[in-house]
Amino acid sequence: MKRKLFCLLLSVLLLTGCRNQDKLALPYTNTDGLNLSADTSENAPDFFASDLAVIPDELNHMSDPEITAESSLIVNDTDNKVIYANNVYERLYPASLTKLITTLVVFEKADLSDMVTISYNASHITESGAKLCGFKEGDSIKLEDLLSAFLIYSGNDAGVAIAEHIGGTIGGFAKMMNQAAKDAGAVHSNFVNPHGLHDDNHYTTAYDLYLIFHQLVQYDKFLSIINNSEYTVTYKDAAGDPVTKNFLTTNRYLKGEEKAPEGITVLGGKTGTTNKAGNCLILYSKDKNNKDYISLVLKANNSDSLFSQMTDLLKMIK
C-alpha cells in the first residue's frame, strides 16, 4: 500500500509539472514555501525522503567542463543525495539502457527457471549494427541464462525472446514495460520494444532511468548478474544437442579497460549505443565507506568520451 501511494503521488507530481513535449519538467514543484532540496531535508515529503533523491531545478543544471554529454547524473543511493545533475528531465533515446526496464519486468513477472524457446522473430533481427547473441530458431535456454546474456553482452535477440516468452508479443510486453515504469514513478518514458533498437516513439529521461535502476538494485540476482565480466552458458539447439557460448561484458570497468577513481568499486551497470541515442552508460558503485552510488551519462559523443565522463562523475564522490 505504501509503495502504491508513493507511485501515485509521484506520478501526479511528475505529470502536473510537465512543461512541454521535448523538455520534461521536474518531478514536483516547490509550493507553499517548502524548500525541497536534494538532500531530502525535513521539509521534503516523506514519500521522497524515505526512498529517493529529489532533484530541484536549481540542482538540475550543474556545469562541469569535463561533463559534456547531453544528460548526466550521480546520486548517493545510500543517503539519497544528489552529487551532480544536468538535464535529467530531458527526453532522450535510451538505446540498450532499455534493457533495464525489460529486466525489471522479468523480476516482477517471470520465473528465472523457465525454459525459453527462441522464435523465428528473435533469431532473425536484421537491423544493421544490432548486437546479437547468435541464438537460432528452436534453441531452448533457461530464462536466467538468457537474461544474463541479455544484460552482460547486450544481445538484442535475447530481448525479443524474453519479451515473447513473458508478454506473448513485443507489443504485449511493451505494455508491461510501460506499466512497470509507471509503477516505479518513471512516467516520462515510453517503451515500444525490449532492447532499445531505435524507434522515434521509444524514449525516457535520465531521472526515469535512475528510478528504474533504483528498483532493480534491490534484487540480489540483478547485482550478481551485472557484476560479471563474462558469462558462459550451455543450452540445447532445436535438435536437442548442447551448445556452449561465452559472452563478454560491454562494461570497460569490469574488463579492466577503464579504471575507477581510487576508493571506488564499480559493481556493474549497463551500456547502450545507437546513432540517435549516442553513447550511454549507467553504473552502480560503492565507495570505501560502503555507500552505494548510481551514476548515469546519456548521449556522449563516443565510447571513449562516455567512459571518461563517467570516471569524472565518479571522481566527485567524496
TrEMBL record:
Residues that, per the record, bind substrate: 270
First and last residue of the signal peptide: 1-20
Keyword Cell wall biogenesis/degradation: yes
Keywords for this protein: Carboxypeptidase, Cell shape, Cell wall biogenesis/degradation, Hydrolase, Peptidoglycan synthesis, Protease, Signal
Superkingdom in the source lineage: Bacteria
Peptidase S11 D-alanyl-D-alanine carboxypeptidase A N-terminal domain span: 61-301
UniProt lineage: Bacteria, Bacillati, Bacillota, Clostridia, Lachnospirales
Family: Belongs to the peptidase S11 family.
Protein name: D-alanyl-D-alanine carboxypeptidase
InterPro entries recorded: Beta-lactam/transpept-like, Peptidase_S11, Peptidase_S11_N
Pfam family, one: Peptidase_S11
GO molecular function, one term: serine-type D-Ala-D-Ala carboxypeptidase activity
Active site residues per record: 96 (acyl-ester intermediate), 99 (proton acceptor), 154
Gene Ontology biological process: cell wall organization; peptidoglycan biosynthetic process; proteolysis; regulation of cell shape
